[in-house]
Amino acid sequence: MRVVVRITRTAGHTSSPHSSRTVEPVTASSPSTLDLMDQWQQAPRKRGPRGCVMLALLVVGALVAGAVWVVVSLNDREPVPVKPEFEVPSLKPAPRSAIPGDAGPLPAEPAKDAWIAKVSENTDIPSRALRAYVNAAEKTAKTTPRCEITWATIAGIGRTESQHARHDGSRAGEDGVVTPPIIGIPLDGSPGVLAVVDTDKGALDGDPKWDRAVGPMQFLPATWKRYGVRASGDGAAPDPQNIDDAAMTTARYMCARGGDLGDPSGWWTAVLTYNNSTQYGQEVFSNADAYGKAALKP
Predict the structure, then answer these.
(1) Is the backbone of residue 84 left (phi > 0), alpha (psi -120 to 50) or beta?
(2) Which residue spans traverse the membrane (predicted)?
(3) Beta pairing, strands 171-172 & 182-184
(4) How many Å apart are CA 115 and CA 219, to the nearest integer?
(5) DSSP state of 13
(6) Is the peptide bond before 95 cis (omega within 30 degrees of 0)?
(7) How far is 44 from 8, CA to CA, in rounded Å?
(8) From the centroid of its chain, how far is CA 202?
(9) SS3 of 48-81
(10) How far apart are CA 125 and CA 132, in angstroms?
């Protein structure tokens, strides 16, 4: 049995300008299909609280006949220091007025591992996801230097879309594959949801009737088919559930849609194509700006 993580839409984050009224199904042959699908992405989610852990200790007394079981809460032990939650100040720049702060130069290969470990520790980004973002930005700088997309912007998208592949208990393994797979809700025209008729016969999202966004970066199947990249270059098909492929595809997609992301107009065009919402753009901006500042800390 295939286990997948389903992402549900957060209230208040709609998918298209028409979400407040009836939305006609979009088919693969519709002229505006890609533009409509490009505008749809997921809003951030929060994970539920962890359960309480109990420890059972067997105490055997030399003068006591039999055994006594004692249940001790871990909360009764010496408290363990907890790493402070990474805080992202909520910034509200007007669209196309600014870009996130400088994230600094990409680390050279000999120092990359140490840099990733430091930045991962300074932020909420798992090292495996951070490596994918850095590699995607690095490769894009070589193939499309005019784009100027930063790892921090890619990470900003990753945080909003799936908490860096950690939505609802998923995680990216050392091979980059996210388990359980992350699959969005059916785009069936329900209130606040864009209607997108199936375009891939369920190959990527398991749904032969309606399309669903897939992977840690939440791409629709038709968008993935057009922009998907295999980051490793090993000849295998791009996998939206692979954090390396997803990060690389995000860079390619945003560069294609925004042009020069070193310019406010280009940056905002790219991000708003991912999700046509000022609130979404401001959230990604805030994420990227905070990550850039954290990376520059000693």
Answers:
(1) beta
(2) 52-72
(3) unpaired
(4) 29
(5) -
(6) no
(7) 10
(8) 22
(9) CCCCCCEEEEEECCCCCCCCEEEEEEHHHCCCCC
(10) 11
Distance CA 197, CA 83 (A): 44
Provide the total of helices (H) and of strands (E) in the chain, helices listed first: 8, 6
And the tokens for 12? 């208040």
Find the DSSP H helices in 106-242: 109-122, 127-143, 151-162, 221-227
Taking the model in full, what pTM does it have?
Answer: 0.77
Tell which residue, 181, 189, 239, has the closest CA to residue 210: 189
179-214 b/e with 16+ CB inside 10 Å = b? bbbbbbbbbbbeebbbbbbbbbeeebbebeebbbbb
Beta-bridged to residue 120, according to DSSP, are: none
Burial 56-88 (b: 16+ CB within 10 A, else e): eeeeeeeeeeeeeeeeeeeeeeeeeeeeeeeeb
C-alpha to C-alpha distances, 216 to 122, 126, 159, nearest whole angstrom:
21, 13, 9
The owner of tokens 């984050």 is 13
pLDDT tens digit at each of 298 positions of the chain: 434 455 543 323 334 322 222 334 444 433 334 455 554 543 333 333 333 332 233 333 433 334 333 333 334 455 555 667 899 999 999 999 999 999 999 888 889 999 999 999 999 999 999 999 999 999 999 999 999 999 999 999 999 999 999 999 999 999 999 999 999 999 999 999 999 999 999 999 999 999 999 999 999 999 999 999 999 999 999 999 999 999 999 999 999 999 999 999 999 999 999 999 999 999 999 999 999 999 999 8
